[in-house]
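Hey, I'm writing a tutorial for new members on how sequence and structure tokens pair up, and I'd like a real worked example in the thread rather than a made-up one. If someone can provide the structure for the chain below, I'll link this post from the tutorial.
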Amino acid sequence: MILPFSIPSPDLQFIEIGPVRIAVYAICIIVGVIAAGIWTNRRLTQRGGERGVTLDFLVWSLVLGIIGARFYHVASHWGDYFGQGREWWNPFVPNAIWNIWDGGIAIFGALLGGALGVLIASRITGVRFWSFADALVPGLLLAQAFGRLGNWFNHELFGGPTTLPWGLQIEPDNAAFPIGLPPETLFHPTFLYEIVWNLLGIVVLLAIERAWRPRWGQFFGLYLIWYGLGRSVIESMRVDPSLIVLGLRTNVLTALIAILLGVILIIVQRHRHPGLERTVYLPGRSNPQDSVLAETSDPEEYYHVLDHGDARDTHAGPDEVDAEDREDTDDADMERVGEERR
């Protein structure tokens, strides 16, 4: 039964620009990634990171995150790709493991692949892995919220039947529509539940950060706990098929593991790093801009390449400096350079 506040599934799933067909789901993900990158870069530079350094992390984590998201989905939906008669190796048939454009990615796989990308970028840029992870938290939750909005456009990953006023309308010819249910059945909008949970997480976790300044990966540990708690409940509502491990859907089990890892991470890092995080860089590495300043800080060695002006006219404009004084200053500078060369 359609209720006054029930949520319709959007008709728009693709945007066509000439011969190019772009999925709205992909646009949602791209917007989320860009927003997360901008926000993370701002947070990291405020802590002393090089401006634009997040781009290195974005490239590595995005590529490996997509690969991880796809293979996690394949592993958790094994029968869809390796069942009898399936040609998983053939990219020209549906349900080949390579055909990501046919749908099928998983956020937990994206987190695992993205973590590997962050580790690689950390070694390249010198920015600590956990410093970047802490800076990423609010942007990551925002990106995940955008991704769940894409699920709405795709008419997928909804929950079980509900009579709540905000039930989600799903067309009866949808392949995921449960067999035997009346066509007017409404379903839990799990995409909306997770969007709300992620946005609420941004508010709550940023409040915690302002109050206690968790660093050294402890803030990321809080993210794992928050996201794992919400995902373990929301995932249990879904009706799409999933591999069952220990009596639980794989994503529910993974969410519980995320909570455990978050708790362990906070305990271990509090013990290992009780002090303040004074730099986001690894030992022996620093912001390249700071490195240049440090290398040219010797006034005797680099005096000839610096414009010191005239000590007697520090408050005078350039037009007020006497020409004879400028010549005297230039002569003194030339003599100093000559002495240094000898």
